[in-house]
Amino acid sequence: MIRPMIIDISEWQHPNQINYPLLAKQIDHVIVRVQYGSAHCDKFYQTHLRRFQELGVPKAVYAWVRGTNHADMAQEARIFFERAKIFQPTFYWLDVEEQSMSDMRGGVEVFRQTLKQLSGKKVGVYVAHHLYRSFNLAVENFDALWLPSYGSNSGSYHGIKPTVNQNYDLHQYTSKGRLPGYNGFLDFNRLADRKPFIFFTDRPQDSTAWGMAEKGSFSLKTAIHLRTAPTIHAQSLAILRAGQTIDYDAFAHEQGYVWIRQKRADGTYGYLATGPSDGQKRTAPSWGVFY
Length: 291
Hints:
GH; alpha/beta; 35% strand; Glyco_hydro_25; SH3-like_bac-type
C-alpha cells in the first residue's frame, strides 16, 4: 500500500456500507465529491465529511464541472463553495471530465477565479486523461494538477504514470482499490513528489503510518534484502540470512510483494519482502515462517 494513502469518494460509496473508524485507520487523506454540476448535490457528501472530520482525517472536496457558459461556471463555483465551506476543507478541486461548453478553457478559468476569491483556499484541477489536450485548460493557474492513469487498473500501483503532462502533483492510479472498512472499489491516489503532503492537508503526514498494523516475528527460509523502503529498488540496509528472525509491526501488499516493517534501534524503519503478491493476496508461499 502506497502512503500517504489518499482516496476520493462520492455518493457511489454509500455510508451504510462504510465502517468509517476502520477505513479511517487505512487512509491519510480523503477527497469528497460535493456536487455533479450545480443542480445535483451529492447525496452523502455531508455524512462523508462529517464522519471523517470526527475521526481526524484531513479532508478536501471536489466538484464535477458542468457549467454551460461563463456565468453558469461562476454560479457553479458559488454553489460549490456554499455547500462545502461549513466543513472547512483543506483544498478545493475541480473535476473536469465533460465538455459542457465550447470554451472549456475560459469557462474553467472563470470557475477557478470565482472559487479562489470566495474561499481564499488552494484550488486544484483534475482533468480526464483523454480530454486533456482538447480542453487545453490553463492548468498553470491552479495550485495543483491531479491526473488519472490506470494502466492495468489492478487495484495497485505498478509504475504507470500520466503522460499528457509530466508536471502533475497527484496521480489517481486505480479505480479498483480495496481497503478494510469498505467492501467495494475505491479510487487510490499517490503524491508525485512535487509537493509535500502538508501542502494538500495543512498537516504533516504521520511518518509511522504505513500498511496494516500487526505485531509478529518472521523467520527467513532464504536470504532477503532488508531495505529502506518497500520496493526492490530501495537501498539495501543488510542481507538477512536464512534462519534469522526479525520482529515486525506492520505489513502491506505493495510493488508486487508482501512487505513487513521492522522498527530499527535508531527509530527508522526497514522493509522486508516476504513473497510475491498481486496487490491483494499472496500468489506463492511466503519465504519464511510467521510467528
